[in-house]
Amino acid sequence: MNEKEIFNRANNKCELCESDNNLSIYVVFESDNNDGYVVLCETCRNQIESENYDESHFNCLNTAMWSEVPAVKILSYKILSALGRSDLTDMIYLTDEEMAIANKKEEKILDANGNELKNGDNVTVIKDLDVKGAGKTIKRGTVIKNIRMCDVPDHVSCRVDGIGQVYLKAEFLSPSN
Predict the structure, then answer these.
(1) CA gap 172, 142 in Å, rounded
(2) Which of 5, 35, 114, 143 is the most buried (most CB within 10 A)?
(3) Which residues neighbour 6 within 8 Å (Cβ) at sequence distance 6 or greater?
(4) Which residues fall within 8 angstroms of residue 34, CB to CB, at 6 or more apart?
(5) DSSP states along 64-128
(6) Which of 120, 129, 114, 104 is nearest to 156 (CA)?
């Protein structure tokens, strides 16, 4: 499923509150068939990312929680749980796999300075790193753009010019200015 298909599925509206202002795609969970994405408006996205929820805004979840889209149901469940709305979370039907995703605790990946790294961050390498199997070194001071969180603990996935896709330990990275 590509970006256009995701927006079409959502009828070009936020899949939580149905607003059509400042829409973007938000990753709820990674999956092979890309069904882990939802379309969110700026208001919903900002509240989710800051974990500062306005319960009156999220009354829209009374409808969204019945979505057929797994990512929408899972995100609705997570927000309602954070709001302490067990009266509604008890009604949401999630498969065992969806429930496991919804209850999975996100491990924070920290850089060399103790700052949390997130998908899309730009970082700087703080130490020369030999790349196994490539016979090359990533030099100290190299700026790496658009990192991605991955399943390897304490590592990020990224693309390095001249080397390609690699996994780097977060402890050797710092925020790029």
Answers:
(1) 11
(2) 35
(3) 25, 34, 37, 39
(4) 1, 2, 6
(5) HTT-SSHHHHHHHHHHHHHTT-HHHHTT----HHHHHHHHPPPPPEE-TTSPEE-TT--EEE-S-
(6) 120
Q: Is the full-model pTM beyond 0.70?
A: no
Q: Is the dihedral of CA 70, 73, 78, 79 positive or negative?
A: positive
Place of tokens 């991955």: 150
Instruction: Give pLDDT tens digits for 93-143.
Output: 999 999 998 888 767 888 999 888 888 899 999 999 998 877 899 999 999
The first and second tokens of residue 35, run together, are: 């069904």
